[in-house]
Design goal:
The chain is α/β, with parallel strands linked by helices. Helix content is about 25%, strand content about 20%. It has nine helices and 13 strands. Strands 4-5-3-11-12-13-10 form a seven-stranded mixed beta sheet. Strands 6-2-1-9-8-7 form a six-stranded mixed beta sheet, covered by helices on one side. The protein is globular and about 70 Å long.
Length: about 375
């Protein structure tokens, strides 16, 4: 096999943070809010990509709602979407919901490719065969449902959807052996792996020019912000008489406190239980949904530490290819235990246009020093 210019077999080293002593919750601080001067994102800061960037960041604040959703990524907006769909079945009544976002609207990555079997054996040893199987089926179901919404609403071009193949390369013999064990265990557990095609290093070299063996299976990628923007706007329009949705960006929630159970209300369904503090004022609501991912422990300190939610850096580079898209193909790639990945963005004329290539990963080159609780 060829030799990569980055470290290999770094998965165990990358998990070193979990070996550190658990923080003392009484003396340690939880995850902070997002920094105000974060690096610019290709996905978010490209011209015209984020029409909802500053939505609701000025003017009157929504101070009362049935449901407060903290976080405007795909999780938070999906919660709003499914609430709206469920309420459409009701004959009467209206639910009000507000999404509160600390920064500009939405921050998500662009993969939409469920993993068919890789790492199955590890999950099986940790959680048992059935629960490991459920995890893979859930990922497959989620990707399938997102694609169903995209196709039903005819958003394919609007969100730059690319449906093609994904190739996972094995850059060491250790990875090849582990993948074979994963495949056998997943097959025995009943996962459908019939769509997985094993490629020898000769086959990969002949078709793609790379020099490692791997596996190929169906995959998708898209512009995540554009998808979440579409989903938010669709949710607002589903049935405003039953589900009224507001958005306030640049409105971080700094604390949550319970309201007195004796808070007056003539309608028990309208009784508010929580007060959310923001720099712009308080928001009262009955239910709170936390969709803040790495920042969850800022408001939920019980998720601070190695047994909670550990923030992890992610970064990509967007580079212009030196050859037309037809030479590169639409295939997306992963390798080196998942530490490196890349995929080309769509172009109008594949025969002539040189695509942007999203190159991600690289944490294996820095080690765990930049991770923190």
């Amino acid at each position: 096999m060829s030799i990569l210019s980055v470290p290999v077999l770094q998965e165990q080293a990358a998990q070193a943070i979990f070996d550190l002593p658990a923080p003392n919750y009484e003396s340690s601080t939880s995850t902070s809010l997002p920094v105000p001067n974060s690096t610019h994102s290709f996905w978010i800061n490209s011209p015209g990509a984020n029409p909802l960037a500053k939505e609701g960041s000025e003017g009157e604040l929504t101070v009362d709602a049935d449901v407060c959703i903290i976080g405007s990524g795909i999780t938070g907006v999906s919660v709003a979407y499914h609430l709206a769909k469920s309420l459409a079945l009701l004959e009467d009544g209206q639910i009000t919901a507000v999404v509160l976002e600390a920064r500009d609207f939405c921050r998500n990555g662009g993969h939409l490719t469920p993993v068919p079997f890789l790492h199955f054996k590890e999950k099986e040893e940790l959680f048992g065969s059935e629960d490991a199987k459920r995890a893979y089926l859930l990922e497959k179901y989620t990707a399938s449902e997102i694609l169903n919404i995209i196709k039903k609403e005819h958003w394919e071009d609007d969100i730059d959807l690319v449906s093609s193949d994904h190739v996972s390369l094995f850059v060491t013999d250790v990875e090849v052996d582990a993948a074979k064990l994963d495949f056998a265990a997943a097959s025995k557990a009943g996962l459908d792996v019939t769509h997985v095609e094993w490629l020898s290093d000769e086959e990969v070299r002949s078709e793609y020019g790379a020099t490692f063996p791997g596996v190929r299976f169906p995959g998708n990628n898209l512009w995540p912000l554009k998808l979440v923007t579409k989903l938010f706007k669709l949710t607002q329009k589903l049935d405003p008489t039953k589900f009224n949705l507001k958005l306030h960006t640049n409105t971080p929630v700094t604390s949550i406190s319970p309201l007195s159970s004796s808070s007056p209300s003539s309608n028990p369904h309208r009784r508010r239980r929580w007060a959310l503090t923001t720099p712009r004022g308080n928001v009262q609501c009955k239910y709170v949904v936390h969709a803040t991912n790495a920042y969850a422990s800022h408001l939920l300190p019980q998720f601070h530490g190695p047994n909670g939610i550990v923030p992890t850096r992610g970064q990509v580079m967007a580079m212009r290819a030196d050859v037309p898209a037809v030479n590169i193909t639409k295939t997306s790639w992963g390798g080196n235990q998942g530490f490196e990945y890349w995929f080309p963005r769509p172009v109008k004329n594949p025969e002539e246009d040189k695509p942007l290539v999203i190159l991600g990963g690289g944490r294996d080159a820095s080690g765990p020093d930049f991770e923190s609780y």
